[in-house]
Amino acid sequence: MDIQSFLTQDCTECAVTVSSKKRIIEHIGQIASQHIDGLSEQEITTALLNRERLGSTGIGNGIALPHGRLANTTTAIAVLITTSNPIDYDAIDNQPVNVFFALLVPEDQCNEHLKSLAAVAKKLSDKSILKRIRTAQNNQELYQAITE
């Protein structure tokens, strides 16, 4: 699975300043809405928040994989964000999170959604890649860290 097929450099932001789980999800919604025709920031944010209500997408080791399915779209999109300071995200290891890889997919692409999440989780489990992500100084370095 090629991450570049659903993550673009303009959906990658390094060292964002946010203070809460809700704010990071809203920020993800804001970025994604600029790349998905016909869906508002609020609709995207709501999809992500609805998924979080089922259980935290904080997978541990300072990483979260917020995700959701969207109606009325045919394109999968990802958003990669690091935060300047880790935030409380109710992760499974109770540790704060500073790496957020969000994935939004059309609601009829469940299998692709699961494959994409698995590919991202595998990539983020690589300690050298994760170190490059956490030490990236700008959006371009962050994008290169996850896609190379």
UniProtKB/TrEMBL annotation:
InterPro entries: PTrfase/Anion_transptr, PTS_EIIA_type-2_dom, PTS_Nitro_regul, PTS_SugarTrans_NitroReg. One of its GO terms (biological process) is phosphoenolpyruvate-dependent sugar phosphotransferase system. Residues 5-148 form the PTS EIIA type-2 domain. GO terms for molecular function: protein kinase activator activity; protein-N(PI)-phosphohistidine-sugar phosphotransferase activity. Gene3D superfamilies: Mannitol-specific EII, Chain A. PANTHER family: NITROGEN REGULATORY PROTEIN, PTS SYSTEM FRUCTOSE-LIKE EIIA COMPONENT-RELATED. This is PTS system nitrogen regulatory protein IIA(Ntr).
